[in-house]
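Thread: sanity check for a docking pose with S-adenosylmethionine

Original post by kr_44:
Hi all, I'm comparing my docking run against an independent structure prediction. Below are the sequence and the ligand SMILES. Could someone generate the full complex and paste the structure tokens? I mainly care about where the ligand ends up relative to the chain.
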Amino acid sequence: MAPNPRVIKAFSFMKALGISSQEVKPVLKKLLKVYEKNWELIEDDNYRALVDAYFDFEKEKGSESEKKANDSCHGGEKPIQKPLLIDYDHDKDISRQMLCVEDKESIEPSQTFMKDIMGESSSQALSLVAVKDRKSSYPEKASSAGHSGHLEKEIVKPRNKKPKLHLNITDRKGLSDASGGNPSVKPLSIQDQDMQNKHAISICKNTTAYNGNIKIGSSSMDEVKIFLDCESALTQPNFSIPNLNFVMKFMDRKYLSSSNTVGPDFSMVKLLNDFCMSYLMLGHRKGSNSKHGNSEQCDNQAERNSSHFISDITKGSEKVKISLIGEIDKEELPKFNYIPSNIIYQSAILSISLARISDEGCCSDCSGNCLSASLPCICAQETGGEFAYTPQGLLKEEFLTACISRANEPQDQHKVYCQECPLEKSKNEYMPEPCKGHMVRKFIKECWRKCGCDMQCGNRIVQRGITCKLQVFLTREGKGWGLRTLEDLPKGTFVCEYAGEILTNMELFDRIMQNSDKERHTYPITLDADWASEKGLKDEEALCLDATNNGNVGRFINHRCCDANLIDIPVEIESPDHHYYHVAFFTNRKVNAYEELTWDYGIDFDDDDHPIKAFRCSCGSAFCGDKKKKG
Ligand SMILES: C[S@@+](CC[C@H](N)C(=O)[O-])C[C@H]1O[C@@H](n2cnc3c(N)ncnc32)[C@H](O)[C@@H]1O
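Reply from moderator J.T.:
Ran it for you. Here is the predicted complex with S-adenosylmethionine included:
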């Protein structure tokens, strides 16, 4: 009689797992008896019942018979451990399966076994993930009344529950080297202590089984396992595992709010990468070290289905998209008009004309990139004959250090006192107070339109605009919205300008008076960095920037006393006099992905007379100057 093709198929499936037909035969026989020859139950879910029955049977046989079985089957090698098969198309391509091994303490699989599954060439790249909790990964065992024998008792109850999405966080400690010996490929993962939380995720770095970083497959255990390769941000202390429902809902919203969800460049890998990024981002957003506290918080959030997400607050006006993320009910969406560069409100006088740029004020003889010329061009004169930027586009260490030390020690020698201070005049036109002093600042001068170099010249950083990946997010300390970077930023990186309306100080003062009842406003910046060189400024030349109603992303940068990670540096671009200049933010140290970007506003929290009422500072710095708050 010709063998039953279903038996042959079951044998070949088990053989691929390294289990011989002889071993499978008695188990299959008993299983058929228990299931009353219902093959569907046996074949279901990649022979899950058969695989389980086999391993349970083996286990129960006791140590002696187990040893015998292993010796005969694997030539004395380490016994096969029960695999959770993740198989995306068993019939078509068994060599592309991924395996999870039950016992994480000893998950080095036998070479034979790996070769059987992956084939000779691919066995090194096999990715193995230990399943932490047997209960959470395995179906219930049924005590089958009416059947005798151990196997029957341990037979797996066929599952009629809908498969759940179950993502496991795994510890890769003790895993076999899946990197194929490449030292630069380090597995990275996090371990969830709370197995009650079924929403966990396995994130492994570069344990690529077949070229891609993302691996998906459905297991034989009614689960779907997704392996996502995420960034090293995971190891940061402020990362806590977000609720998966919340991440899912966030993704839904994000893609529903995006007009081009499925464009011609759609790819599943991109989508999953995005999922990874969102997962990390939401994890970081929690900002607390308590996993349990956060997961509760997340549950509530998920219940309320509550997240704001704007994919690009710049409405396409910057070269990069800047997203905003926050929770509904916590804070209103900011109401302002995004402008990528400064704009005159009304009375400010800005004389920008090429005629005002003298031949000595530009490098008309240059071409290409001024930084690659043998000698610095005339535009470097402002910065002592050296360009402020490195060829990599960062601020030079010495220049940055000089700016930082001047900002940190606002000593009198760097201050200038006006005879008739426009700032004081704006507060009280008829009886102005004496000038309180203005810091003389170090300027950067960038090449511009009259210069011979091109737009890619290394001395044109600020004018080329934002290039970092930034995000507006809701701070947890009550500071309202804040700005963070989504990527690591080296020291000296240009982040963004503070762009807003250009007002005269008089106009600003009027505006402040009119809005004095409003608690929160953005912080205006007085453009007084070079008032020293002016004998007397006309009212319409004493300028400031206000980004409250119209501004760029700089308006979201919160204050931090003393140890902020950004420094504001005046930059001369199109105007040779310094009534008007650009205020550019640079990192003053390396800033890690997901860190909030902060800037020291230079507020005197004791100055009760200042027209702008200082907020209660929640910067969290050890050097916080808000003594009232501390008191
Ligand atoms: C330039 S805006 C920054 C963006 C602002 N957080 C928002 O939600 O639009 C300045 C305002 O943010 C708030 N803020 C900034 N830094 C803060 C801090 N360290 N503590 C408390 N509030 C802060 C204050 O209300 C301040 O007037």
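The first helix runs from residue 5 to 16. Hope that helps with the comparison, let us know if your pose agrees.
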